[in-house]
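In the current project phase, our protein records have gained a structure token line. A sample record follows, to show the layout:
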Amino acid sequence: MASSSPCRCPLLGRVRLWVLAFAVGLAMGAGAPRAGLAQSVLYKLAHSKSAKSRLPFTLQRNLIVVPVTLNGRGPYYFMLDTGVGTSLITDPGLRDSLGLRLGQRFLVAGVGEEAPLVAFQTDSVRVQLGDKASSPCISFLLLSDDIFDLSSYVGQPIHGILGADVFRSFVVEVDAEEQILMLHDPIRFRAPRGRRWAHLPLDIEGDKSYIHTEVALNDSVRMPLKLILDTGAGHALSIETSSDARLTLPPERLRTHLGRGLSGDVHGYLGRVQGMRLGRYYVRSLITSFPDDKAVQAKVQVPRNGNIGFELLKRFNVVIDYPHNKLWLKPNALYRDPFEHDMCGLELLATGPQYRRYVVQRVEPGSPADRAKIKPRDEILSLNLAPAESFSLTQLSRLLHSADGRELILFLRRPDGEIYPARIVLKRQI
């Protein structure tokens, strides 16, 4: 049975911004009772002679989604996120289907005035990752309500989030092009060789990893920043200007809706920084989020200046090495792709049994979609004469970022049943 006296746990030590959708912030705060969430048993490879395990994943909207077997059943689909300290089951329906036992009860508080969410510790979960990596008993937090609705954002079923326990157990190699994870035994792991590999020190503080790197805000301001390494954030770079007085907004910027968190909408600015140093590599003209973050900064336990997300990391083959405190990077075929923001102004959510119906959640004021008189709750029926269900949500998102001046013809169904045609010309806004 669950404990009758809940522990108040200030979640959301950060707000994680996903371009074109809402944010999810998941970081156990200083007020959380750590002993109850301790991971006494982590993941291991099945055979003592195994040096690594191969795990395919899908890259959906810049998020790593892996198939997972829980208590011998599945597959279930989890995001892999360095930014989350304690792994989460976000689908409360798994409690009954997996026979999960509920332990200590937590109240998970947001940034603002929203009523706290109830979550329960459950330590009865046997986890299998791929053919060789497993754990007989991993602790999760089971949310009482799927308030994040990650499935509608990603466009496929999502049952939870795997966090730091995976990265503490293995050296994790991520190949975004091939969509393959390699989970290496830390003892047997050998550092990658070759002149194209760069490495950076990786600081582990609490359950999160940080890099220190130089960012050029403009021609005259270059400064070292401490950034969370965040595979669960779909943007390239986010900078919290309240963390340092020298961090200022770029002169060319776009005031916009950046995402959604537990306590409501997150607003801020989008702009570009001149460049960012990653070892021997210099990445130019990054689209950067500048959230209105004073309320968030007040809850930060470990001082930092922002985070880097998978829109940047996917341009490299990445080796995340918690056991040896290193991050290895090698450019891949995506390295020279430009950083682009949404050129349409639509935020879409996937619905229906197969998540192949697409409904407009929000329209950016003044955007091409707004000028085309597209409205929230409109459903996209076709795009350039192709049925909407022939696209994944990730493919639709790419089209909306695709090319300045590109013309799109949409047919939409209004909530009253009216079929509405719309012509949109994509426009680069930043």
